Amino acid sequence: MHPFPIQRRRFAIGAAVAAAAVACPALRAQGKLEKSSISMAVGGKAAFYYLPLTISEQLGYFKAEGLEVEISDFAGGARALQAVLGGSADVCSGAFEHTINLQSKGQFFQSFVLQGRAPQIAIGISNKTLPDFKSLADLKGRRIGVSAPGSSTNMVANLVLSRAGIQPGDVSFIGVGTSAGALTALRSGQIDAMSNTDPVMTMLEQKGDVRIIADTRTLKGTQDVFGGAMPAACLYAPLEFIRKNPNTTQALANAIVHGLKWLQTAGPGDIIKTVPESYLLGDRALYLASFSKIREAISPNGLVPEEGPKTALKALSSFDATVKADRIDLAKLYTNEFALRAGEKFKA
For this UniProt entry, which segments traverse the membrane (predicted)? Predict the structure, then answer.
């Protein structure tokens, strides 16, 4: 491959970092942390959706930045968000689209480092309770499992159903989490379909428990469902927190980007050694099969793609009447300043 495109990319990133330093003088040189103890909320930490967070935590990258991060795990992203809104957590590791929902209600939160560039969510139909499934219309009146009502798994389900004319009220959404409880809910017949993340969905798929009908675990699948790049897991916080704590925010972004850099070259054995044993759900081979499937969905550098927020807004506004596209300021949803500087530090 000719070297010039790479050189141009490096120049572009360097220029962007310089521009960020001008726009935000506090980022020119990272000074003393305004806040060294951080409480973080996450919804379903064992899912691959949040693998970069787990890697950064397990490998000590937060501590390397001078941070003590206490992570509270909830059943889904919507519940994690409630912890931040309620003041019991400073930062949320959650889905990018929550920043849109919040802004539509007059609450300004901002994503400052991306973990996933695809939602990594698949929708599967239970072969036990719906063996004769033919179309989405068959889901009317049925029970659909999601990590938690209002979470990104719920959002993807709403989007796919809306294209078949099915409204959220036409089905029953049931929170099942993102780990062993989700497997049990589907296999026992408590739900008829499920919108969830890996490793859960790959495990159900490979054991013949579900038939996948929509899949955003790959970049191509994400393009098929959303029509463009869709930013997924990220660290986001109230805009006021970011403005008051730029050095702390930078340290958090550094830790995540450090984890993303490690993931670029990590092998299956490295992943198994690093994540907690409970995350494997009792099947190492299937866990690694799941990792292979979603690997390209992990962000390589923590940057939100320029077209991503537009894709997310278009998706949300297509089925949620409370989200008015013309009233959302896309520029306030995210900043790449912190991830750019972290990328310079770790050559990500």
Answer: none
The CATH number of the structural domain formed by 121-215 is: 3.40.190.10
Tell me how far apart the alpha carbons of residues 227 and 68 are, in angstroms, rounded to a whole number.
39
In this model, does residue 302 exceed pLDDT 90?
A: yes
Global pTM? 0.89
Tell me whether the CATH fold assigned to 4-118+230-346 matches the one assigned to 121-215.
yes
Q: Domain 4-118+230-346 - what CATH class?
A: alpha beta
Return the structure tokens found at 263: 């993931």
Residue 24 has pLDDT above 70, yes or no: no
The strand order across the sheet containing 210-215 reads: 172-175, 143-146, 193-197, 121-126, 210-215
- Cα angle 334, 336, 338; round to 5: 115
CA distance linking residue 235 with residue 139, whole number of Å: 33
Q: Quote the tokens at residue 173.
A: 């959404």
Can you give the residue ranges of every domain in the chain?
Answer: 4-118+230-346, 121-215
Structure tokens at 53: 């967070």
